[in-house]
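Example A, followed by Example B.
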Amino acid sequence: MANAYTSPIPVKKTHLGNALASEWTKIKSVRSTMWTLGIFLALVIGIGLLAAANTEPGDYADVPFTIPAFFGLILGQICLITLGVLVTSSEYGTGMIRTTFTASPQRYRVLAAKVVVFFVTAFVVSAGSILLVGLVTSSMNGGAEAGDLPWAGTVLKGGLYVSLLGVLALAVGSMLRHSAGAITAMLGLVLVPAILPAFLSIWESTQTLGEKMSDYNAINSLAKIFGAEGMDSPGGTSQLVALIVLTVLALGGAFALLEKRDV
């Protein structure tokens, strides 16, 4: 048509990069991110350096220099779990998710962007804090008495493990759409397997289940990653793989429900 209106604003097809930019703007501008990550850093670095200050070079003959960070991560992982839930559930609570899906009707793209932005943020913060504790500890306790155990793997595995816990919490938050419920569910997933084996070991028929639960709960998994159980070297690969599988399954459920339910 000769008189058809043409917008002076250039129209461009949206892509994943636009969704990533949007989610990055959200996560860095809300106060919950600063509080949760700030407390996480205070716990991991603060407790880690406090533990390092009360050790001697001989204490690191069989464990890596990052072992003090493990004590902070036991509590710090709860901060990443909370933030992971809030990344998705908070928008449902305020109703802003309607605006988000109006601006980006491709719901899978929105959730994928949330996962990528959160995971990268959580991994950089967690791995960076573990690395800092390791570097400070090595400078404080280096010497002939200290072992030469490699600890770069604990930085990567430790950061990856707690970041995946946060992504799992994000998926649970997306499925439940309720902050308190999702956080409670994730705390149960972290704490119950750490407590229940003590009761399951009472009966012979449940001892095997209790042992598996003890090996794969979040606290003992981190202990294996950091070599805190008296092993010759850090491990935890099977625990990390199990968490990856669980996270992938939870994300699959989150993506499936996202397309089927109304907002």
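Example B, a separate protein, is given below in the same form.
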Amino acid sequence: MIETLFHAYTPLFTWIGLGLLLSRFAPDSLLKLLGQSLYWVGVPLQLLVLARHTHSSNGRIIPGIAVGVLLLSLVLALLTWWGWQWLINRKIQPEKASLNLPNSSMRTSLGSFILATILGNTGFVGLTLTQVLTSPENSDWAVLFSVTNNVVGTYGIAVLIASYFGQRETKNHWWTQLWDLVTVPSLWTFFIGLNTQFVELPAVVESGLEQAVWVVIAFALLLVGLRLGKMKGWPSLELASIASAVKVFIVPMLVGLGATYLGVTGEQRLVLVLMSGTPTGLSVLILAEVYDLDRNLLASSIALTFIGLFLALPLWLAWFS
């Protein structure tokens, strides 16, 4: 098992490490360009390919579970934030009330905290873990969960949250969030892929599309390394630690217990736990570039949730496999 996990995580360390090395020389404009390119081209292409290869008899059950996990994570994120604010306000020293965060940044910090808690890296880490830790007959569960997480979570709920909490020069209105949601390219490419499954493409084209997905993943991981390398200290470490604990420990534990209560056991339960407990998704950095969110908080959450995954994974295998 250790050998398979090492093989699964090799690309993570390779591309993130390369980004860390290049961050000393890469200008901020390159990170902005990379984030925008992934948002408008890379991720839509990935969802197009995944949608074309999604087939399962659980076509309604798994998406419903994935949406339920997103809503559970959202509620836990809000409750945790309010609880943290209450504890901070109870402290004697008033200078600690904002945790060294200017008032103007608290709004973006809240939005970033929510995104760090609800969005998981199901498209790469989740699918990779389920591939090496479960049998092939359960792969459709993982794919459907990942696609739903990306479409409904990353480019549905998350776009609304990022648009609402992001720093804008213009005033936010309900039609602003609606327009941001309608114009998300990933939603369109997903539905195009879903409705073109019957179209047979030449083998060369299919192979090229599958390889392009891995190129997208590599650039997304590279962006993580670049953003981590640009961080100046860990000003958001406490907030990121709280969000990370909810993301990789509390949410998957509740999902595993809930699945057990509903009679879902074995590898199928493990798939749900693994997919709900993946590290914070790389897409939050893309949204941060597009909507000007708290990049340090999101980058810190990604780093800490990757560390947390290594600690949590043996527990999930022992309790829910």
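On Example B: Confidence is low (pLDDT under 50) at residues 95-99.
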